[in-house]
Write a structure and sequence with these properties.
- With 215 residues, the protein is an all-alpha fold.
- It has a domain of 135 residues: Cytochrome c-like domain (Cytochrome Bc1 Complex, Chain D, domain 2).
- The chain is 34% helix and 3% strand.
- It is built from 7 helices and 2 strands; from the N terminus they run ααβααααβα.
- Strands 1-2 form a two-stranded antiparallel sheet.
- About 6% of the residues have low confidence.
């Protein structure tokens, strides 16, 4: 037993002496792990664009270029003119259908902000090849989507500068959900736990309701 203890003690001592060489963090921090993200690494994830244009990249794209890009990258699912193919989403059309029993919700008829379309194309499209498009190509494709919704002319050029000026038809059709403040208090009250009713009366028996089994 003493020999086993000596071997164990020796192994533990060797491990303790060797540990600092492997445990020393590359950069000191609260947990001694990792490092601060580089600006280019943050930029690769920070792709969101606000309705006012904040977060837009530099660049521009025209309708004609967008038509070619859309045909090559988008038409197989969304149709040549954004009309949809099969069960894939329709991107154009549906104007004045939101009050119908079966409304057609597209970029032109339903979406409130163009930044949603730009962000989605830039972040997720084309299907199976996300983020292969350059910023100029994204501007061009979004310009073509606007054209297919009859919102711009065929010589339109979408850019970072004029982007905030584009207002989609249904921009005013959305509002802030304030039900927690406006409605919830009207239908919320403390439950009654005692003396909740002055009198209790039996108004009908189960046998009369024909819900009591005969046997």
């Amino acid at each position: 037993m003493s020999r086993f203890r000596e071997i164990l003690t020796g192994a533990a001592l060797a491990a303790a002496l060797a540990a600092p060489a492997f445990a020393e963090p590359a950069q000191a921090g609260p947990l001694g792990l990792g490092r601060p993200a580089l600006p280019e690494e943050i930029a690769a994830w920070d792709l969101d664009v606000s309705p006012d244009g904040d977060g837009l990249p530099e660049g521009s794209g025209d309708v004609a270029t967008g038509e070619e890009l859309f045909s090559d990258n988008c038409a197989s699912c969304h149709g040549e003119f954004g009309e949809g193919s099969g069960n894939w989403p329709k991107l154009a059309g549906g104007m004045d259908t939101l009050a119908d029993d079966d409304p057609l919700k597209t970029v032109g008829s339903y979406w409130p902000h163009l930044s949603t379309a730009f962000d989605y194309v830039r972040r997720s499209m084309p299907f199976g090849g996300a983020q292969v498009l350059s910023d100029d190509e994204v501007y061009a494709i979004v310009a073509y989507i606007l054209y297919n919704n009859d919102l711009v002319d065929d010589d339109f050029v979408l850019s970072k500068e004029n982007f905030p000026e584009v207002k989609l038809p249904n921009a005013d059709g959305f509002f802030i959900d304030d039900r927690d403040a406006a409605e919830t208090p009207l239908f919320t009250r403390e439950p009654c736990m005692e003396n909740c009713k002055a009198t209790v009366e039996i108004t009908m028996h189960a046998s009369v309701l024909d819900v009591t089994p005969d046997e």
